[in-house]
C-alpha cells in the first residue's frame, strides 16, 4: 500500500476504533457532575447503524452533524423540553480538527438534537429491554414520531493524535465548550474508568462553573 493510501485509510480506522470503544462506555458519561436526570448514549449504539440521534440546525433536513460519540441529558417539561449534550470527536489530522471545531462554533442559531422514533422505541441496551423513551422524564406516553429538541448546553471532547495534542496544548486556547485528550485515552480499554478522563469530563458541564454545584 502506498503512503498516500495509508494516510487516506488511517483516519477511518481510528474513527472506527474510537466508536467501538465508545460502545462500551456507560449511558451516563463517566465523571460528569449531576448524577440525577435522564442521560442516554445516543451515539454509537449497537445494532443501529442508521436510526441514531444526530444534530442539525432548524429548518435543515440535509446538513447534519453526526459526532463519533453523543450523550444527551434530557430535561425540562412536556411544554418546554431541552437537551444538554456531550459530544466526542476523534480527529486524526489537524484539518479534521478544524472541520469538526467549525461545526460546534458558537452561533446565534440554536442547535437541535434529533431523536429518531426507532431509537426511542429500541431497548436501552442488550441486557436491559426497557425502551429508551421510558427513561426520558418529559415523555408520558409512547411516542409515535421522532422529535427534535433545542440544545441548551453543548460540550465537546476532541481526541487528538499525541503530537497534535501536545502542539495544540502549547499554542492554542480552547473555547469554553471545548475539551481535549490524547487519542489513546479514547481507544484505551476501559478508558471511561480512567481517573484522568473522569476528572476531565467532570469539568465538562455548566455545573462546574459554580462554587457549589446545584
Which key phrases capture this entry?
214 residues; alpha+beta; 8-stranded mixed beta sheet; two-stranded antiparallel sheet; 6 helices; 27% helix; 29% strand
Can you offer a commentary on this structure?
By secondary structure, the chain is of the alpha+beta class. It is built from six helices and ten strands. The N and C termini lie far apart (55 Å). The protein is globular, with a radius of gyration of 17 Å. Helix content is 27%, strand content 29%. The longest helix has 20 residues, at 3-22. Strands 1, 2, 3, 4, 5, 6, 9 and 10 form an eight-stranded mixed β-sheet that branches. Strands 7-8 form a two-stranded antiparallel ribbon. A hairpin with a 2-residue loop joins strand 4 and strand 5 (80-91).
Low-confidence stretches: 1-9
N to C succession of SSEs:
HEEEEEHEHEEEHEHH
| Main sheet makeup | 8 strands, mixed
Oligomer designation: single chain
Distance between the termini: 55 Å
Tell me the overall shape.
globular
Proportion of β residues? 25-35%
Name the average pLDDT: 87
Number of helices: 6
Provide the structure class: alpha+beta
Indicate the radius of gyration in whole angstroms.
Answer: 17 Å
* Helix-residue proportion: 25-40%
Number of strands: 10
Amino acid at each position: 500500500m502506498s503512503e498516500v493510501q495509508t494516510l487516506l485509510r488511517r483516519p477511518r480506522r481510528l474513527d472506527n476504533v474510537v466508536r467501538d470503544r465508545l460502545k462500551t462506555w456507560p449511558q451516563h458519561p463517566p465523571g460528569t457532575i449531576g448524577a440525577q436526570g435522564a442521560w442516554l448514549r445516543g451515539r454509537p449504539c449497537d445494532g443501529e447503524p442508521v436510526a441514531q440521534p444526530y444534530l442539525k440546525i432548524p429548518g435543515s433536513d440535509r446538513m447534519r452533524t453526526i459526532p463519533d460519540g453523543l450523550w444527551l441529558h434530557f430535561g425540562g417539561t412536556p411544554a418546554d423540553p431541552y437537551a444538554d449534550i456531550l459530544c466526542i470527536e476523534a480527529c486524526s489530522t489537524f484539518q479534521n480538527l478544524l472541520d469538526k471545531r467549525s461545526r460546534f462554533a458558537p452561533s446565534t442559531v440554536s442547535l437541535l438534537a434529533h431523536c429518531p422514533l426507532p431509537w426511542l422505541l429500541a431497548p436501552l441496551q442488550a441486557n436491559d429491554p426497557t425502551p429508551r423513551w421510558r427513561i426520558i422524564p418529559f415523555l408520558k406516553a409512547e411516542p409515535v414520531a421522532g422529535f427534535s429538541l433545542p440544545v441548551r448546553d453543548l460540550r465537546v471532547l476532541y481526541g487528538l493524535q499525541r503530537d497534535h495534542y501536545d502542539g495544540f496544548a502549547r499554542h492554542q486556547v480552547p473555547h469554553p465548550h471545548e475539551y481535549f485528550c490524547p487519542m489513546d485515552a479514547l481507544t484505551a480499554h476501559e478508558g471511561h474508568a480512567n481517573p484522568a478522563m473522569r476528572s476531565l469530563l467532570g469539568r465538562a458541564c455548566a455545573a462546574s462553573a459554580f462554587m457549589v454545584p446545584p
